[in-house]
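Exercise 7. Predict the joint structure of the components listed below.
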Amino acid sequence: MDSSQLLKGVLALAVLAVIEEDDSYGYDIVTQLRLAGLEPIGEASVYGTLRRLHAAGHLESYAVASDAGPHRKYYRMTNRGGEALADGAKIWRRFSETMSVLLNEERL
Amino acid sequence: MTTQTVDRAIGEYVGRCVEYLRDLGEHDRTSILEDIRQILSEVTAELEGAPDDLLGPPDRFVAELRTAAGLDGPARKPPKKRSARLSSSLRSATAVLSAVRGSIQWRPAWNWLRDFAREAQPGWWVVRGLLITTLLVLAIGGLVSFVGGSGNSYVDPYYVDTPPTTTFYGDLIDEAAIDGFDDSLGVRFGSTVTEDFSVLGPLGAEEVLQELLSLDIPASEIWVDFGAGPNTFTSETQLRAAVMAFWPDTD
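Solution:
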């Protein structure tokens, strides 16, 4: 199975988890997700997800001047985003446990 | 790459992305284009390479971004470009059309004529004389109707139906970018009086500049949406520098 298909469903959760650690900008988030092991992730998916989360009020953005070029658009978590992350994490854990049980049973 | 080269490459890529966002409202489209420019600024600050190599072709990139953003929709293929020969021939007619700016009465006829010209491409040398003659007739008709003060309005997808604000001119330029500098542009002032001009060939930077200046609007009112440099200008000199820097010269 293509892991990118699975990734689409949980990308918002992964992005929120990265931003919960610290405010960050798009390309840095892409890099952090890849370093964490989500190599197939594309820039467009991450930026599109950031846009969706921002529109939903889960993130706020602000500009920061950069030595490397034009200003960067940083994102920070809102209270609403924090709640969404907590809810999503619970759902993910339940889902993950269920899948682990199912997959183990399949093997037996 | 120099900063100017990078800005220009970013501007070109963003211009090509517009085509796949046309089904969206102006707010979403403008906002996504700003996002794409932001992405490219960040990525090119970290990595070497052309935007197409870094992000993939615009159609795929926009489709992926829209899916992730929850803005899935139809992606339109870019319009087929006219041949350079036809465009070059038609360009000479632009001067004639410029003479009839200010009228809207001849627009339906003009649409028909434009379509006809496209289809007549193989035998263009035969119809050139007819075309010029027709344009002259239309020009006279346009001037007559303008003097008569007629105020009909019409709907044309290439015309942005908004008041002439500064961002409006950004839309105008985006429209040109969508069509590879290869289609007509229009300016609408309010709902009844239309300032109209036509650009019928692939434009060079100088031609773009002249078209903008020919609108007889102060440089400070023109908004250029290309590159990371200034978008508004206090003088013609500044506007000229920006257009020359950001607008690909296809000549």
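Discussion. Helices of chain A lie at 3-21, 26-35, 43-55, 79-107.
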